[in-house]
Specification:
It catalyses: an alpha-L-fucoside + H2O = L-fucose + an alcohol; a neolactoside IV(2)-alpha-Fuc-nLc4Cer(d18:0) + H2O = a neolactoside nLc4Cer(d18:0) + L-fucose; a neolactoside IV(2)-alpha-Fuc-nLc4Cer(d18:1(4E)) + H2O = a neolactoside nLc4Cer(d18:1(4E)) + L-fucose. The protein is an alpha/beta fold and 451 residues long. The protein contains 13 helices and 15 strands.
């Protein structure tokens, strides 16, 4: 079998090229998993996920519209098409209506910056196979030759980076209906034509062209990582790519990899561990609890409200995770006002309480059942106790912190130190002022000089 030229080049680099980290990573999980996670990722804590594609045109039910219509044969999807589109209408016929005519990347970037997010992850390609850049392996199934006739990945990336935010790209390894992939699948994944002609060329192109700080891989659950050549790609990414020193990757690189291999762990969607994990992790969550893509049929009751989002974020950060919150833009390129309202509300809370989130570490105790739930984060000798509802009382006990004569307690947003007294064994009782109104229903006590 002829060895692809890209693999020959990779092998040469693995044998001869020095790494700025001083370590050469070999294409196996033992080596790749030993790579230290670039520090920026743990410090930023909060990011925005953006699901956008041809599925935003029907904007019904889910971003899995095509699959539910044609494979799962869900009645509501079939009926939607019968009622609204003529016989013979195909999914690809939606693409010309993916106009994105109101897409202003600077407006999006302003909203994301106002949310307090420090990184943004855009879908470069979902499972439908439509690429949001002019991929040379996508024929005309891309945003430059079809639909918007724009390089959406590049345009948003430029706007994001002008605001000094980190830019990441989601990429689906597999494609539901690509005939080359289906042929490989039919062979039991003994052939790799789709990998060599489509999946890997796309990933190399994305990295070389857009230099993302993060790659969010997905669509990995049908075939093993050996089919995808994932370890070969990651070895190149960590050793010789233009982003080798800063790039962060997740754990979805083949069947059985998630929660085991990769830079940080996503595990399952909306992963919610019950205790402090021993590996850096991320929870991806969507404002719309039903779908990741935009739905015209969404109801207000199906959306996370601001207090729910903040409680979720605080929980994740206290347990050492990052919080990646998703919004789905419309086909014409707008972020729905209800999503923007949530994002700006998060940003308003973070302006006051952000020091309890950014660059923090999990404390020795992550939570306490006080009068109201309390979550802890820490920086050196400073501990933050985040109250996720109003205790409705002036005196408030924290049983876990070990105080000293030098301990100072303040309420973030209130410049005056608070009066407090130690409890007999451990902890303290603090005299709270009238808590300011917070749409997020969360407040932070800052405890300096505690053990």
């Amino acid at each position: 079998m002829q060895v692809p030229r890209c693999q020959i080049s990779l092998l040469f680099c693995l044998l001869s090229c020095p790494s700025s980290f001083g370590t050469r990573y070999t294409p196996d999980w033992a080596s790749l998993d030993s790579r230290p996670l670039p520090e920026w990722y743990d410090e930023v804590k909060f990011g925005i996920f953006v699901h956008w594609g041809v599925f935003s045109v029907p904007a019904f039910g889910s971003e899995w519209f095509w699959w539910y219509w044609k494979v799962a044969l869900k009645p509501e999807y079939i009926l939607f098409m019968v009622k609204n589109y003529p016989p013979g209408f195909s999914y690809t016929d939606f693409a010309p209506d993916f106009h994105a005519q109101f897409f202003d990347p600077d407006e999006w970037a302003d909203i994301f910056e106002a949310s307090g997010a420090k990184y943004v992850v855009l879908t470069s390609k979902h499972h439908e196979g439509f690429t949001n850049w002019g991929s040379q392996t996508s024929w005309n199934w891309n945003s430059v030759d079809n639909g918007p006739h724009r390089d959406l990945v590049g345009d948003l990336g430029a706007a994001i980076r002008k605001r000094s935010l980190h830019y990441g790209l989601y990429h689906s390894l597999y494609e539901w209906f690509n005939p080359i992939y289906l042929s490989d699948k039919q062979s039991g994944f003994k052939t790799q034509e789709f990998v060599e002609k489509k999946a890997m060329p796309e990933l190399y192109d994305l990295v070389n062209r857009y230099k993302p700080d993060l790659i969010w891989s997905d669509g990995d659950w049908e075939a093993p990582d050996t089919y995808w050549n994932s370890t070969g790609f990651l070895a190149w990414l960590y050793n010789d790519s233009p982003v080798k020193d800063v790039v962060v990757t997740n754990d979805r690189w083949g069947l059985g990899c998630y929660c085991k291999h990769g830079g940080y762990y996503n595990c399952a969607d909306k992963f919610t561990p019950g205790q402090l994990p021993n590996h850096k992790w991320e929870k991806c969550q969507s404002v719309d609890k039903i779908s990741w893509g935009y739905r015209r049929n969404m109801k207000l009751s199906e959306l996370m409200d601001l207090p729910s989002i903040l409680k979720d974020m605080v929980y994740v950060v206290a347990l050492g995770g990052n919080y990646l919150l998703n919004v789905g833009p419309t086909a014409d390129g707008m972020i729905a006002p209800v999503f923007e309202e949530r994002l700006r509300g998060i940003g308003a809370w973070l302006k006051v309480n952000g020091e309890a989130i950014y660059s923090t570490k999990p404390w020795r105790v992550q939570a306490e059942n006080a009068t109201v739930p309390v979550w802890y984060t820490s920086k050196s000798s400073t501990v933050y106790a985040i109250l996720t509802s109003n205790p409705m009382q002036n005196s408030f006990k924290l049983l876990t912190p070990k105080t000293s004569h030098n301990t100072v307690v303040t309420l973030l947003g209130n410049p005056e130190p608070l009066k407090w007294a130690p409890l007999q064994t451990s902890g303290l009782i603090v005299l709270l002022p009238d808590l300011p109104f917070s749409p997020a229903e969360a407040w932070t006590l800052k405890l300096d000089e505690v053990a």
